[in-house]
Design brief:
Length: 185
């Protein structure tokens, strides 16, 4: 069966991408995958934008086949195209300030200092998104090879306060800014 967009019949299902509830009546995206544990297929439900970021190939495939049923098609397509360009981008699962100094960065292997911004990563395996550690926010340019990840970072960080979101935007801007012409580093 093809993947599908449809209104959620109940408010019970949680989105695989962000872990939050999908409201009753809200359009959801169903990705059909071979059932890893039994015969046949199973469906993974997502908020459409969460699927565009986390399962970009399935989203793009569906947008070409079921254009009419897609909500906000342009935004979905933009997010999915961006994230399909590099396999690491769909690992992004939000940003947070490190609550302890115990985790090491998956990119540079140095500890992430308590209080520093870090990016949460997940790996997709057999229908699940498993926690896969962190990278320093400052390692993002190297780890994601310069891709623009801010929109996806903010999307998967719904628990941040407005102030924290503003800080995150600023922190992303600071590192990514090219040096001004004529200014010596
Ligand atoms: Zn979601
Ligand atoms: Zn690092």
């Amino acid at each position: 069966m093809p993947h599908v967009f449809e209104p959620a019949p109940t408010g019970r299902a949680k989105c695989r991408g962000c872990g939050r509830s999908i409201e009753k009546g809200e359009v959801r995206f169903g990705e059909r995958i071979p059932n890893p544990f039994a015969e046949g297929e199973t469906t993974l439900w997502f908020h459409p934008l969460c699927a565009a970021y986390k399962r970009p190939e399935s989203m793009l495939e569906t947008l070409t086949q079921a254009r009419e049923s897609a909500p906000d098609r342009e935004a979905l397509e933009r997010a999915a195209r961006g994230n399909s360009a590099h396999r690491r981008l769909s690992r992004i699962s939000g940003a947070e300030r490190a609550p302890t100094g115990q985790a090491k960065c998956r990119h540079c292997h140095e500890p992430i200092t308590r209080g520093d911004w870090r990016i949460r990563l997940v790996f997709y395996e057999e229908g699940r998104f498993n926690p896969a550690g962190f990278v320093h926010l400052s390692c993002r340019v190297d780890y994601f090879e310069g891709a623009d990840i801010l929109a996806s970072l903010l999307h998967f960080s719904p628990d941040l306060s407005e102030e924290e979101r503003a800080e995150l935007v600023r922190a992303c801007g600071d590192v990514a800014d090219p040096p001004l012409p004529g200014r010596q580093a």
